[in-house]
Design a protein that fits this description.
It comes from Cognatilysobacter xinjiangensis. InterPro entries: Amino_oxidase, FAD/NAD-bd_sf. This is Amine oxidase domain-containing protein. By secondary structure, the chain is an alpha/beta fold. It folds into 3 domains: 1-41 and 57-109 and 241-328 and 439-513, FAD/NAD(P)-binding domain, CATH 3.50.50; 130-232, no CATH class; 330-437, Polyamine Oxidase, Chain A, domain 2, CATH 3.90.660. It has helices spanning 10-21, 62-71, 134-140, 142-157, 166-174, 176-182, 184-191, 200-206, 212-223, 247-260, 306-312, 319-327, 369-372, 396-399, 402-415, 442-445, 447-455, 465-468, 474-490, 496-499, 505-509, and strands spanning 2-6, 27-30, 42-45, 48-51, 110-114, 117-121, 124-128, 239-243, 264-266, 270-277, 280-288, 291-302, 330-341, 353-356, 365-368, 382-391, 426-437, 460-462. Helix 11 packs antiparallel against helix 12 (319-327).
Length: 513
């Protein structure tokens, strides 16, 4: 019998390789797209590469760091103090079983990159996350600094309890004034609903324990030369590893290893049905090339959106379960790639991300792909930008044709002053449905009912971001997949261990001393 994995993203491919390492020889991965990597894929457009959403390769998990570096070793000569990693040219005997034969291709490496993310507000740049250093305070001005300071103190002395919404969560950590200045508009642009309607769970998973106090302590350590670059908070890590040709390169190598080890990877295979009978998943049916093909399954690992999973197995569920799944919210995502000559930028942009807080524009964030890796760009004389728009599949923005979206993106870049010309050298539009599971709405409030029903199927394991309807980062998704693979390999079933990953703030955000 076959272990069927739905989805060839980070979670699916991690599970596939871990199952092989544990001795499982009959594993098949079904991927609906033509590229592996899911939202972590890299899209090549005329030699210029796009990282969908931006993916730093940094984790508090040593296991994840070692796993990555075993597939794509760190470039020779790179100094990574404090990181216990495999380096290019290291003895192959030390590598994990599933990566015994790493390529000698010098292109299959990870680079050490500097991180810079900033907020763009009122045509000025502020550090992101907010470091509240002297430069930031100068730009805010004396009056706002005092007002924001009193607002923060008030929030710390009298926090909102209990924290029911993301608004409560952010006010408690930053104060009401700072929240409204730097968080409210951008967050609502991302999610499309007011912050007071979003679950505080999103803040607990995405922002964790980052606060003004910790940001100030981090800035103080930097100024005093006390190792500010070894920040405790994941959000403050100022350098990271990155595959030479983007995040998809990691998952392309993982997929190749899986196939070389005897696994079956079926691309452009859209899962349409999962047969569930007597509390067990029996088979998975997919469509490829117009043909329906069924695979008998001993176990199923699902990374597909929970809504789609329930629809594919709807006959197995009572109406209230189907109803919850049907009403789950998702946020969709559009990237518009714009290529400019370097002379078109009024000032250099050294950022990985720029969070756009300027009023009157739809763009939420801008990536500068040159700064992720210089090999993401075909010509060093050009700057390759990715403008990110957040919407729903039902929104007018989603249904605009590519020419209209490109014109909108060009116009907004010029309007906010990040470029000095409207015309670009090249452009492309990429739509990503269900990029973010929604943490709001009546259905989300009842998600535990849905989770309980799905977890009752003994041989069905949910992993990854969409698979669990949870804002997992890439490394968290991998850890959920590792645990699912371990349980399958050892004949165990304890799904609470999978759901416990990315819950404990201290464990996942602060590295033990």
């Amino acid at each position: 019998m076959t272990v069927v994995i739905v989805g060839a993203g980070p979670a699916g491919l991690t599970a596939a390789l871990e199952l092989q390492a544990a001795g499982k020889t009959d594993v098949v991965v079904l991927e609906a797209d033509s590229l592996v990597g899911g939202i972590s894929r890299t899209v090549d457009h005329n030699g210029n590469r796009i990282d969908i959403g931006g993916h730093r390769f940094f984790s508090k998990s040593d296991w994840v760091m070692q796993w990555w570096a075993a597939l794509l070793p760190v470039e020779s000569g790179t100094a990574c103090a404090g990181l216990n990693l495999q380096y290019k040219g290291q003895s192959r005997d030390t590598l994990p079983d599933h990566t015994k034969s790493p390529s000698d291709d010098v292109d299959e490496v990870m680079l050490l990159r500097s991180r810079l993310s900033r907020i763009y507000y009122n045509r000025q740049f502020f550090d992101y996350p907010l470091k509240l250093n002297f430069d930031s305070l100068r730009k805010l001005g004396a009056l706002k600094t005092v007002v924001f300071g009193f607002s923060y103190v008030a929030a710390r002395l009298k926090p909102i309890q209990p924290e029911r919404s993301l608004e409560d969560f952010l006010i408690n950590r930053f104060g009401a004034k700072l929240y409204r200045q730097f968080f409210k508009e951008y967050t609502e642009k991302v999610w499309g609903v007011p912050c007071n309607e979003i679950s505080a769970a999103w803040g607990a998973q995405r922002i964790k324990s980052l606060s003004v106090t910790k940001a100030l302590l981090h800035a103080a350590r930097q100024m005093l030369g006390l190792g500010g670059d070894r920040a405790e908070q994941t959000s403050l890590i100022e350098s990271f590893l990155y595959p030479k040709y983007g995040p998809g390169q990691m998952w392309e190598v993982a997929a190749r290893r899986f196939v070389e080890n005897g696994g079956r990877l079926i691309m452009e295979a859209r899962v349409t049905e999962i047969e569930i009978e007597h509390g067990m998943a029996r088979s998975v049916t997919y469509v490829k090339g117009g043909r329906e093909i069924a695979v008998q399954a001993s176990h199923v690992i699902s990374t597909m959106p929970v809504r789609d999973l329930v629809f594919a197995s709807s006959s197995a569920w009572p109406e209230h379960v189907v109803s919850i799944a049907r009403d789950l919210a998702y946020r969709d995502f559009i990237t518009v790639g714009l290529l400019y000559p370097r002379a078109a930028l009024p000032r250099p942009l050294d950022d990985n991300w720029i969070y756009v807080q300027e009023p009157g524009v739809k763009v939420g964030r801008v990536q500068v792909f040159n700064n992720w890796s210089p090999f993401m760009v075909a010509s060093p004389d050009t700057v390759w930008l990715g403008l990110e728009f957040f919407c729903r599949e039902t929104d007018e923005l989603w249904h605009m044709d590519d020419h209209e979206l490109i014109a909108l993106a060009q116009r907004e870049m010029l309007d906010i002053g990040l470029v000095s010309v409207r015309q670009t050298l090249d452009s492309v539009v990429i739509r990503v449905p269900k990029a973010y599971p929604g943490y709001f709405g009546a259905a989300y409030d009842r998600f535990d009912e849905l989770r309980g029903a799905l977890d009752s199927i003994e041989n069905l394991f949910l992993v990854g971001r969409n698979g669990m309807h949870r804002y997992n980062n890439q490394d968290h998704s991998m850890l959920t997949a590792r645990e699912a693979a371990r349980q399958i390999a050892h004949g165990e079933v304890d799904k609470s261990k999978i759901w416990a990953i990315n819950i404990d703030d201290e464990y996942h955000e602060e590295k033990a001393a």
